[in-house]
Fold these 2 entries.
Entry 1:
Amino acid sequence: MGSRTDVPAVSSGTTKIRLNLRVNGEVYDVLAPVHHTLLEVLREELDLTGTKHGCELGECGTCAVLVDGEPILSCLALPVELQGRDVTTVEGLAAGGQLHPLQVAFAEVGAAQCGYCTPGFLVTAKALLDLNPSPVRSDIAEALSGNICRCTGYVKIFEAVELAAKQLRAKAEGGGTGGSPLHTPAAGATVDRQAP
Amino acid sequence: MTPAEHGQRSREELTVVGKSLLKTDGLTKTTGQELYADDLKLPRMLFCRLLRATRPHARILDVDTSRAQALSGVHAVITSRDLPHRYGILPVGQDEEALCSEKVRYVGDAIAAVAAIDEETAEAALDLIEVDYEELPTYMTIEESLSKEGERIQAGKYGNAHRAAALEFGDVDAGFARADEIFEDTYFFQGNTHLPLEQHSAVAQYSADGKLTLWTSTQTPHYVHKELAVCLDLPEERIRVIAPAVGGGFGGKLELFQHEAAAAKLSMVTGRPVKASLTREEVFYCHRGRHPVLMWVKTGFLRDGEITAMHFRSYVDGGAYMSYGAASLYYTGALQTTCQKIPAYRWEGVRCLTNKPPCGPKRGHGTPQPRYALECHLDACAERLALDPVSIRRRNMVEPFSKTVNYLRITSCGLAECLDKVLAESRYEQRLGKLPYGKGVGLAVSAYLCGAGLPLYWNDMPHSAVDLRLDRSGTVTILCGEIDIGQGSDTMLATIVAQALGCRYDQVKLVTADTDLTPIDLGSYSSRVTFMAGNAAIEAANKLRGMLTEAVAEQLEVSPGTLTISDGRVSDASGKMPELTFEAAVKAAETKYGSLSASGSYRPPKLSGPYKGSGVGPSPAYSYSACVVEVDCDPETGWVTAEKVWIAHDIGRALNPVLVEGQCEGSVYMALGEALMEEQIFRGERGPRVLGVHQIPSMLEYKSPTTLETPEMHTYLIETVDPEGPYGAKEAGQGPLLPVIPAVANAVYDALGIRIDEIPITPEKVLRALEARREGKPARVGPTRLPHYTFPRILQVEPPEEWGGRPMAEREPDSQAADGRQPATGNGADRASDEPPRGGP
C-alpha cells in the first residue's frame, strides 16, 4: 500500500472503461469512468436525463429503469455488469411514435405533479402491468412501494395505473384485428421553459 | 333574473373553468422530456462542490486553500473574501454569508467552494482545504439557547432570543375572569423537512458582456434575483434568474442558497458555466424546513363551551439564521382566531437561535404547529367540559364575512359545510368513543391564507402580473413570472386565460419564471399564485377580449353587445353574423389595432390591522378545511396506522378539480408523514454527543410514507365562490395539510385513551404513554415544563368594532396606521416587540 501522506487525488486521470450498452433498443459504445453507476452513465454519457437522481442509496425508486423488463435501481447498478442486456428508460416507453398508455394516464389523471419521481414510477408500473394485466389496488401498492412520491399522496398514481391497465386490456381484447387504437390525449395548453 | 337563474347562467358560461383539463406539462413529464436544473448541460461547464463545516459553532481561525488550488483539474477556489456581502430573504434578517467568514454556525454551513472539471475532482479538492477552528459553546435546544451562557450565535442585542413579540387583542384578563372554566395544555411539534425528490441544483453562466444567468431549482425566481444582486454586489439589471422545472418545493426552495451564490461567483471568476448540484445529504443540512415549536395554550370557557379568552405562547427553535424566521414566528400566533371565535386573545412568542440548519417555511408555514396544539387542546377541553369535539367547535365557529379580534378579514368561509361533510361521510359522531380498543376516530378543522397580504420587502407594486400576447395564428401566449413547482399553477393560468379570453385551451402557451422575459410574480409561496396571478390574468384577458369584440363588430357591422367569444368561437346572438373562429377574430383585431398584447396585475387590498405586527396573517381570502382520520393503534408495538382519511376543503371554486384533489391528497400524505414519522433531529438533542450532526440525513433513515402507508382517502371539494378570487377560487396547496395532524392525535386518544402531545407520534411515545398509565401516572407524553424566558411587554391592541373596539374614526391618529409599520407606543417595554416582518409565505 505504501504511504498515502499528502498524495492528492487526481481524478482527471480516472480510469475509464469501454461499455457496450443496449438502451431503448439502441446500441451505445461509450467510454465511462469505471466507478460510474448506470444512472450516471445514462445521464452523463448518454444524455438520457429522463432518469433522475433521488437519494443515491437505493431508497426512493426515482432512478428506476428496466433491465430485461425488470425494474432495477440504476443508482446501485454498475453498467459493466449490464452489457448485452436490454435497458429501458422512460425515453424508451413510447413505441412506434405512440405513447405507452401509462404515460397518457399519468398525465391525464394528475399523477405527475412535480414529475421528478414520475419516470421511476412509470417503468416500475410497466413491469407490473407486463406481468399482471389486471392488478388490484393492493398489487399496485405493493409493486410501487419502493418508489417515493412527495407530491401526490399516491392516490392519483394508483388511479393512473388502473386506467392504463384497463386500456391495455381493451387493446389486447381487440385481438386479431390488431387491437383497438390506443387512447391519445386531447391537446392541451403548453409551457415553454427557458432552457439554455 | 333571479339569483338562481344567474347562478345557472354563470355555470353555463364556464366552458373551461371547472373542467379537469390536461396539465400543461403532463406529457413532457411522463416522457422524460422535462428538463430540471440538474439536467442542464452547457459547453465547457465546470462543477462546483462546497466545503461544509464539521463543527456546529466555531470560530474560523484560518482557511488554507493552496493545496486545493494546485490540484489538477481545479479552476477556482473561493472563500468569504470573494463573497463578502451579507444577505437574507427578509430585510430584517441580513445575517447570511454565502461562505462563512468569521465563524460557522451549524454543521453544514459553507466555508469554501471549488470549481473543477468534474464533481469528483471538485470533491477531491475539498479534502485538500484545511480549516482551523476554535470551538465555541453549542446551543442545540430551545432550553439551551435561552439559558446557557457563552458566546451568542449571532451578534444582536437580544442574544440567542433574537426575535420576540407579544400582542393582546381585547381584555384577556377580563375574559378569563368571566370564564366558568380555564384550562391549559402544553405541546411540542418537532421540526421536519420538505424532502423534495429533486435535490437543489443550479447552473450559472457569466457572459463576456457582464451578464449573469442563473438557472436554478427555486420557488421564487424574483427573490433569488434580488438576493443574488446583494450577495454578488451586482446591479439587478445584470442578473437573470430562470427557474426550469422544479422537482418539488414545499417551501424548501424559497430563498438564495449558498450553492447558488457560489456557482454564480465561480462562473464570474472562471468565465465558464458552473453547475452546483447538492447531494441528498446536503439537502438535509440546507433544510429551511418546519420549525420545532414548544407551545403553551390557556383558554377560558363558559359552561356551554363558548370561548371567553385565549392566551397562547410559542417558543420557536429557529436554527442558526433568520431565513423567514421573523415571519414564521408571527405565523405561530396569527391564525389561531380564524376557525373559532376568540373574543380576547393574547399571544407571546420568541424565536431563538440554535446551532442547527436554519428553519424556514414548510407547507403551512408556522401555522401547522399551533393548529395541532389548538385542535388537540379543544378536544381535551371538550372532554373536561363534558362536551363533545363537534359541539365545542360548532359553538365557537367563525362566520363568513366577519372580522377576527386580531383584524383578519374573513370573506367566504365554508368551514361549516366542510365540517358537515366529513362528519356525515365518516359517521364520526356515531363512532366516536364506540370503536373497539385500538381503533379510533379524530376530528380537526383549519384555515389558511390565499396569499400573504404584503410582499417580503416594502413596496406598493403589484404582487403578480401577466402579459398576454395574441398572434394571428390564434396562439395566445401568457408571460408570467410564476413558477409551477408541480402544483399546477401553469395549468391554472392557461385555464383562466382560455376562459376569460374565449380561446380554446390548446391555443394557450406559457412562458414563465424568467426574470428577463416575464413580468413580476413574487413566487410559489403562501398559496398565493392562483389568487394573485389568476386575477392578473383575468384583467389582461378582459382587455384583449374587449379589443377582439370591438374589431369583429366593426368589421362585420354587428353590435359588440351581441357577440360572445367562447371556446375558440365568436358567435352573434342577433344571428346577423356567421360564427367565426377565434383566429379570425384575432386577425380582425390585429388589422384594427396592430400587434396585440395586454397586461394585467394584482395587488391585494390593504388589510393590515392598526398595530405593529399586523403584516403577518392578513390575506385576501382564507381557505377552510375539515378532516376526520380513522386510526388503528397496536398497543403491543405502539404502531399507529392511519386507515382512512376524510378531508373536505373549501376551495372557493375548483378551477381544475383533478388538480385540486391532487393538492388535497398530497397535503394529507405530507401531514401523515409529519404526524407519524418525520423528524429532523440532530445529535446533542438526543443520542451521543457528537454535536450538531444530523442523525438521519438520508432517505434510508428519514422515513416518509410509501404506497403501503397510504390510507383510504376521501376528498370533498366545497365551493363557496369567493367574491375576490379568480372565478371564486381559493387555495389548495397548503390548507388541507393543517387539520390532518391534530386529527391523527385526536384519533389516537379515541383509540387508546392516551394523549400524545408531541409530534411525531412515534411507536415509542405511544408505548411510553401506555406505560405511564399502567404506573398510575397521566396517560400522556409531551412537554412538562416551559423554559425560563421573559417575553417583551405586551402591546395592547384595541379590538375591531365587531369585538367592542371604538370606531376607527374615534381613535387617536397614531393608533390607526393601516400598514403594520406603526411603532409600539407608550408601553414602556423593557423590550418592545421586534420590528415585525412583512408578509411571508
Entry 2:
Amino acid sequence: MTATVLTRAQLAKIETYLDDEENNSRFAEQGSLVYQVFRDDRGGRDNISSQVRNLQQAATSATKLADVEDFIKNQMGKGTGAARRWRQDNLGETLLKELGELRKTAHNLAEGNSHHEIQIRLRLARGWVRSVVSEYLFRKAQEAQDVAGENHP
Amino acid sequence: MTELDIEIDDGLRHRAVEAAERCVRLYGCRLTPSQVNGLRQLGRLQPKEVSNYAAKQKLRAQKRSQDPTDRHAQEAGFWDQLWKLCNSGKAKDLDWTLKSALAEANVAKGEQDQWINDRYPPFFQALCIHYLYLRGQQSPHEEDHDD
C-alpha cells in the first residue's frame, strides 16, 4: 500500500519553494503581465477580470495540474477577443511554461512517489496562482488608488 | 488520488498532446472549432462512438475532396489518424494507440468497456484542447464565434 499523505517535510519544501525570493519575484512578474493584459477588463462589482477570476477558480477546483493547463490552453484556443489577449505579450505561453516548471519541481520533491507527485503539483499550482492573482489584485488596487487621488486632489 | 488520476495527468495526457501535434503536423489545422468541440463532447458522452464517428467523418471528407492536397483531404487524414488511435495496434508511424494501450493493460474482457469509459473522455478532452490551442497559434486572428 502506497502512503498517499504528504509528509511534513514535503509540505515544508512546497512552502519553501513558493516562498523562495527568486520564484516569488517570477510569479509577481507573471501577475504583473496578467494585469497588463487584463487591466481594462471590468467584471462584477469588484471590477476583477472574469479571465483572472476563472483562472483562480480553475486552480481551486482542479483535481490535477492538467486541469489548470487545460484552462489556459482552452482560453488561448478560442477564437474570441479573450483568446487574443491570452496570446498577447506571450501571456498564455509564459504561464504554461511556469506550470511545466512546477511539474518538474513536483517530480523532484516527490522522490519517485507518483501519488505524492500529483498532489504536490496541485499544491504548487494553487500556490502559484495565489501569487499571480495577488500581484494582479495589488496592481488593480494601486490603479484604483491613483484614480481616486486624481479625482480628489 | 487513484492510479487512474495519475495515469490521466501523466501518460495519457502526454499521448493526447502528441497525437494532436502529429495530426497538425501531418494535416494542418483543418477542423473548425465546432467540429473539435463536437468530438470533445462525443468523447465525453459516448466514448465508444468516437471510432465510428471518425470513420463517418473521414468518408464524408473524402467525398468532398477534389484533390489529395485540398482541405477536405487533410481533414480526412485527421479522421483517419483518429480512427487508427481507436482501432489500430502499434505501427511504424504510430508507436502508441488507445487499442495498443488497452492490449498492454491486460484488461479482462468484461472490464474493457470500463477501461474505455475511464480513459477516452480525458484523452479526447486533452487532444481537442491541445488541437484548438495549436490552431489558435496558427491562425491567431481568426474568430470562430462558437464559444
